[in-house]
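Let's practice the habit of predicting before peeking. Look at the sequence and jot down your guess about where helices and strands might fall. Then scroll down.
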Amino acid sequence: MHRRSSSGWMAAAWSVLVALGCSDGGGGAVTGSASERPRPSASAASSAAPQASASASAASSAAARAPSGSYGKGSIQGVASFKGQAPEMKVPDKRLKTEFCKDTPVKHNAVLVKDGKLRDVYVRLAPADVKGAYVVPGAVELDQKDCVYLPRVLGAVVGQTIRVSNSDAATHNVNPEPVFDNVTQSRGSKPLEREIVDAGLIKYRCDLHPWMRAFVFAEKHPFFAVTGDDGRFAIEKVPDGRYHVEAWHSQYGWKKADREVEIKGDASVTVDFGYSDADAQPDENKGELDKLF
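Done guessing? Here is the structure:
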């Protein structure tokens, strides 16, 4: 009887171990080298791609919103004047017949002229002339007091929040066009807050008290101002550059400065605007005074 050699026995044992190691059964053995391990399926790879794309898109969007616009030391100021016969502002007829509002007979505020100077003229640097994104300031405030929107005209930066409050005992209806929603706001209600997402004019009205109006200009830059009782305005921290200056009044529309202005360093430039009773109503606010008094 012959014995197997030790080398034959070892070869047989090695064959068994190799066979067991190559098995893909339930033993949990990992087969193949690292380079031969299973790869993600096509469906898994395709589902990962949109996530990567979304992440890249979000990063790109965040970069686009990052402040890149510059401020300077320059300023642009001026006066808005008015020639001719301004319409007389009276207490609206419907106001005199409406509960609560009739108790405070406030004259309408569409055209306010004092010593030939026009109030509530919105003045801005032309949007195309200002480059870069700017830090978004805190919320802008719009109040309903004595059945009037205050302030009547204001500017804001895209991304800012508009906070609308009701300081009256009366219930109001906040109806901004062309954005947001139509909401009833009673006395003591929390302020309504909405973020501005697009540039343009937002016109606020109250369907319950139709004489109430306000105008919010949403800009991509912070270089704007509104004239006061003396018709004056001032735009500060203007960066170096050449600019067209524009003005708007709710009854007399847009005006453009007759010249381009240039800012260098701490230069201070004066730009005046002239309105008159011959100017046409803007399309965005026609008929406000019709049958009002």
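How did you do? Confidence is low (pLDDT under 50) at residues 1-50, 52-64.
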